[in-house]
Write a structure and sequence with these properties.
Elements lengths: L4 E7 L3 E8 L4 E8 L6 H16 L7 E8 L3 E2 L4 E2 L12 H8 L5 E5 H12 L8 E6 L3 E7 L2 E2 L30 H5 L1 H10 L12 H9 L3 H25 L3 E5 L7 H14 L9 E4 L6 H19 L1
Parallel strand pairs: 1-4, 4-7, 8-11, 11-12
Antiparallel strand pairs: 1-2, 2-3, 5-6, 8-9, 9-10
Helix pairs in contact: 1-2, 3-9, 5-6, 5-7, 6-7, 7-8
The structure holds zinc ion.
The site of zinc ion has 6 residues, from loops.
Length: 315
């Protein structure tokens, strides 16, 4: 018997990816468009529709039973709308209704991209087998999601676990979100580079002032570069420890471009966690690198659609 499939969409500020995915998370068909992020909302939607048109043209489409969408946030899963910070043409955009309209009325499940990556790591990656985990993406921004009691916990609007905008520095720098001293304001790639530049570090000839360049300098022993990563690690550790203390996660998975720094990030992160995760019930908290790579958003969106289907079937 041929198994049912789900369609998955991963919508970000630079690309819109689509796939048909089976119940074991295998991607059978995939397609992609650049996100026309600076264009009006209808132009962005046309790119989504082009991705969906390639999926619906596949001979496998007849087996698709649901659509899962992981989108850059904020999203509002209860309203079916998205307002991605990096896509100004979409504010309260009715993405769920629009996708349903071009996919023959299939059920559509919407979650934020942090929740999608968390679903993927829990299903197939570093959080597999963990009933309570925090998964994070540290790159241009800092996002995340939660697994609680063995299930993804997206929250009512799909944004739960958004650790990047927890404040860890009460009087810290203003954050674009409106608060101060957010984890993202200290630990994101651009902020790691900014802090290193302020301390006098300079990229090599022909090199960008990126977190990757700071990581290379840190590996070579540059004290300013090392200090910038230590500060980022401290902010991440404080946010992770706060999360663990609130909801008793025992694992924090860290992915994204900044996590590619490897031990330059993870060594000070593990040290800093000992300073902040101090109570008996959080002392066993561990940190692990993400395993899912660039398909995490698609696989997680598929997981959300499959989970919803099994919930509906189970009722
Ligand atoms: Zn913030």
């Amino acid at each position: 018997m041929q198994t049912d499939l789900v369609a998955a969409l991963d919508i970000g500020g630079t690309k819109i990816a689509g796939a048909l995915v089976d119940d074991r998370g295998r991607i059978l068909v995939r397609t992609q468009r650049a996100t026309p992020a600076r264009e009006d909302g209808e132009t962005v939607m046309r790119a989504v529709e082009e991705v969906l048109a390639e999926l619906t043209a596949s001979p496998l489409w007849s087996r698709a039973r649901a659509v899962g969408i992981g989108s850059a946030g904020p999203v509002d899963a209860s309203a079916g709308t998205v307002s991605p910070v990096n896509v100004p043409g979409w504010r309260g955009f009715p993405l769920v209704a629009r996708v349903r309209a071009v996919t023959g009325g299939l059920p559509v499940e919407l979650i934020g991209d942090g929740a999608a990556i968390t679903a993927a790591e829990h299903w197939q990656g570093a959080a597999r087998g963990h009933d309570n985990a925090l998964c994070m993406v540290v790159s241009t921004g800092v996002g995340g999601g939660l697994v609680l009691n063995g299930r993804l916990h997206p929250g009512p609007t799909g944004n739960a676990g958004h650790i990047g905008h927890i404040s860890v520095d009460l009087d810290g720098d203003p954050c674009p979100c409106g608060a101060r001293g957010c984890v993202e304001r200290i630990a994101s790639g651009p902020n790691i580079a900014r802090r290193a530049l302020e301390g006098g570090w300079r990229p090599g000839p022909g090199e960008d002032a990126s977190a990757a360049a700071v990581a290379a300098a840190a590996r070579a022993g540059d004290p300013v570069a090392l200090a910038s990563f230590e500060r980022a690690a401290q902010a991440l550790a404080a946010g992770i420890a706060a999360t663990a203390t609130l909801v008793e996660v025992d694992l924090a998975v860290v992915g994204g471009g900044v996590a590619k720094a490897g031990d330059v990030l993870f060594a000070p992160l593990r040290t800093a966690l000992k300073d902040y995760a101090t109570l008996s019930f959080v002392q066993r908290l561990t940190v692990a690198p993400a395993q899912m790579g660039t398909d995490a958003g698609l696989v997680g969106a598929a997981a959300a659609a499959l989970t919803r289907r099994s919930d509906v079937t189970a009722v």
